[in-house]
Amino acid sequence: MSRSVGLLLRPCGQVARGLGLALKFAGGTSWERSRRLPEASAHDDDLRSMAYRLIDAADLQPGRLSGLVLRGEDLVGADQVAQQISLDRVREDRLVAEEVSDRIRARFGPGAIGPAVTRLRVS
Asked: Which of 3, 22, 36, 77 has an alpha carbon within 20 to 30 A of 55's alpha carbon?
């Protein structure tokens, strides 16, 4: 879901300053939390990290969840946010790969490329 949020934000030239998670449980109760991102972003890794923190905070129990919504909050134009210089080569490589993936999706459709999947073969 965090990848979907990023895929919606990037083509519009927007970034999120926060991420919100809403959960609905089988008994009808709900849980909702929002957290600010360390810096505004529309990048998959940044959004995924915060989504994991929100889900950890929910202290989920198996079989009780009936609905889940993840949303970007406090959206601003990407051109209005200062870009932090990074010395993290791995992060920079991921951002380049994300940009290339977005261009492939724009040209060939949203299903043209996605995350890699590892399949175990049991003999």
From this structure: 77
Alpha helices in 1-123 (DSSP H): 2-9, 44-58, 89-108
User: What is the mean pLDDT, run by run of 10 residues, along the chain of 123 residues?
Assistant: 91 94 88 93 92 88 82 93 81 89 90 73 64
Cα-based distances in Å from 108 to 6, 33, 39? 18, 36, 31
Residue with tokens 């991102």: 37
Q: Which of 59, 70, 71, 65 is nearest to 29 (CA)?
A: 65
Nearest to 75 by CA among 22, 34, 116: 34
Q: What is the SS3 assignment for 93?
A: helix
DSSP letter, residue 78: G
d(CA 103, CA 36): 28
Q: Is the pTM of this model over 0.70?
A: yes
